[in-house]
Specification:
The chain is an alpha+beta fold and 153 residues long. The protein binds zinc ion.
């Protein structure tokens, strides 16, 4: 999986016209911030990850680099919602900086199972993010300077 230090520019999506900051692109060679997060944040994160809009589908499934004997779960279940692990990416717009945070679906597993505490600014953006695929979400993306075809994957 691609490594990107939290809040650093994400380069691999090949969208140089978009201001994208990576969150949760962890790997086994780099330490990460551990700590408590609110259940409200985790619940909001899971909801957004159930069927996330993204400009292009990613091929294949990323493996969890921290699970010792397995590649990590294929899906995460919480409060009746299911998040498929390792293929989707989540775009969380933040108009203040005219950009978006991009997180891999595995971020939910990292938070749940490996004590990962994403940056507070990301947590706040997730809590404020409109419902996925709503008109408000599309408007928030546009306000953040992201003008993709909204059909998406
Ligand atoms: Zn794991």
């Amino acid at each position: 999986m691609v490594y990107c230090k939290d809040l650093e520019p994400l380069a691999f999506l090949d969208r140089s016209d978009w201001l994208l900051s990576g969150v949760g692109w962890l790997d086994a060679d780099h330490d990460y911030v551990r700590g408590p997060v609110s259940e409200a944040f985790f619940a909001a994160l899971v909801e957004l990850l159930v069927d996330p809009w993204q400009p292009a589908a990613c091929a294949g499934r990323s493996r969890c680099p921290f699970c010792r004997f397995t590649d990590g779960p294929g899906a995460l279940y919480f409060r009746g919602s299911t998040v498929r692990m390792g293929a989707n990416n989540l775009f969380v717009p933040h108009a203040a900086t005219r950009g978006a945070y991009v997180a891999p679906s595995l971020i939910a597993h990292y938070v749940d199972a490996h004590e990962y505490a994403p940056p507070v600014a990301f947590q706040e953006a997730v809590l404020q993010c409109p419902p996925m695929r709503s008109m408000a979400y599309q408007k928030a993306l546009l306000a953040a300077g992201i003008r993709p075809p909204f059909g998406g994957a």
